[in-house]
TrEMBL record:
<protein>
    <recommendedName>
        <fullName>Glyoxalase-like domain-containing protein</fullName>
    </recommendedName>
</protein>
<dbReference type="InterPro" id="IPR029068">
    <property type="entry name" value="Glyas_Bleomycin-R_OHBP_Dase"/>
</dbReference>
Length: 262
């Protein structure tokens, strides 16, 4: 059984300002806009991070799930952790473990050669958890939410930005890490409050006393870190510049971006 961190979804009150920051700071391009999300009162973009993806959604109608989440959070922020299962059986087993843990299914969808199972964020506490399966079962290739294979023409020829992790803030990190571990069926290191996937880690940290659980951060492996930091300064995206550290933190769409060297 293998589970791949294939996509992170952020939510914003306005789409374009966030897209401008992401594309210019990280030198990445929009690869897909999904017309299907309009039925949920949303617009979106997807941007490739190597062979994985960053999505941003924004409400275009009132009283959508996304707009209610924005109101609850009080700002832009992280929205979904989207994992790719290596087989339909793996996806089905995760779904069964979620139901056994009394976690609700928020949304399910199945099309030819693809299926999605979204677990309710109130039960997962920090974010939607979406487990997807694609019939081609290729962690570097076909990805239905990004239009199949069309995204590849927008990919950087030499990968300079790669998705390597996410941070989820909550009231009890160890308990939530164990819940996610039990559902995903993969290990957790108690001391580190981490779940290791085949291409990255999910980290669980304690949120502030007045803060809701949320998808608080993304870790990116990058080349030419200093150039990215310089561009982030130009676009007002530096929230915590740590001189002499091997990690630099930016903030875009209410989300912390931690940069590590590729």
């Amino acid at each position: 059984m293998s589970i791949h961190l294939r996509q992170i979804c952020l939510v914003a009150a306005e789409l374009q300002p966030v897209v401008e920051q992401l594309t210019n700071v990280f030198d990445i391009k929009v690869c897909h806009r999904d017309p299907v999300v309009k039925q949920y009162g949303l617009e979106n973009v997807l941007l490739p991070l190597g062979t994985d993806f960053l999505e941003v959604v924004a409400p275009i109608e009132e009283n959508t799930a996304a707009s209610r989440y924005l109101n609850r959070l009080g700002r832009n922020g992280g929205y979904m952790v989207i994992l790719q299962a290596d087989s339909k059986d793996t996806q089905t087993a995760i779904r069964s473990r979620a139901l056994a843990a009394r976690v609700r299914i928020a949304h399910e969808e199945e099309r030819d050669g693809w299926s999605s199972c979204q677990l309710h964020p109130a039960d997962m506490e920090a974010a939607f958890l979406d487990i997807e399966w694609d019939a081609q079962e290729d962690f570097t290739g076909c990805w239905h939410p990004a239009g199949g294979l069309n995204w590849q023409q927008f990919r950087q020829k030499n990968t300079t930005v790669k998705l390597v992790g996410a941070q989820l803030n909550c009231s009890n990190p160890l308990a939530l890490a164990r819940l996610w571990r039990d559902i995903l069926g993969t290990g957790v290191e108690d001391a580190e409050r981490e779940i290791s996937l085949i291409n990255g880690k999910l980290r669980f940290a304690e949120c502030g006393s007045r803060e809701y659980g949320n998808l608080a951060g993304i870790t990116l492996g990058v080349k030419d870190k200093q150039r990215i930091i310089s561009l982030a300064h130009d676009y007002g995206c530096v929230s915590n510049f740590m001189t002499g550290s091997n990690q630099e933190e930016l903030e875009i769409c209410g989300t912390k971006f931690t940069l590590v060297d590729l």
